[in-house]
Amino acid sequence: MRKAVCPGSFDPVTNGHLDIIARTSDLFDEVVVAIGVNKSKASARLFTAEERMEMIREAIAPYGNVTVAGFEGLLTTFCEQNGIKAIVKGLRAVSDFDYELQMAQMNSSLAPTVETVFVPTSPEYSFLASSLVKEVATFGGDVSALVPPFVLERLTARLAARRAAAEGA
Ligand code: PNS
Description:
The protein is built from six helices and five strands. Helices cover 46% and strands 17% of the residues. The protein starts with a strand and ends with a helix. By secondary structure, it is of the alpha/beta class. The protein has helices spanning 15-27, 49-59, 75-81, 94-110, 130-138, 149-168; strands spanning 3-8, 30-35, 66-70, 86-91, 115-120. The radius of gyration is 16 Å and the shape is globular. The chain has a five-stranded parallel sheet with strand order 3-2-1-4-5, sandwiched between helices. The structure holds 4'-phosphopantetheine. Residues 7-9, 36-38, 41, 74-75, 103, 106-107 line the site of 4'-phosphopantetheine (PNS).
């Protein structure tokens, strides 16, 4: 049984993430979408871990071999505890490669039996990042082609609530 993990912050999950998850589900018997903590992004978080998990759960419903989980510590510990041998990461551009290679090598030094597999992002999603989706949506830009409809709904509601809270403050 070949088991892979697609890790990320998923704040929120985008069509780019879902493209990588769908393609990973074709390559492996079992795929776990794992919501982890990226320390450098913690202050910009828009959704709770539970909310991000709910959105992913809805998005992966069509795939019989994909599940979602959260983890708090090291990704390699999560892999070892769950019998996962492959970490799958999407690469959008050369600029992603430097950081992703560094992480892959650090993860490999922590858990030599866990491999990182890079999957090239589909060209139509090469510019897509959750952080940009949040920024564009904050300023009223149209992100409806970039996230699933149920994510768009939550994003719009969360940003409106934040705006109302800021105006009331
Ligand atoms: O979507 P992101 O923010 O690029 O995801 C990054 C994530 C959460 C996969 C990464 O920060 C991670 O693996 N965090 C868990 C802690 C960990 O293992 N850190 C060491 C990485 S070398």
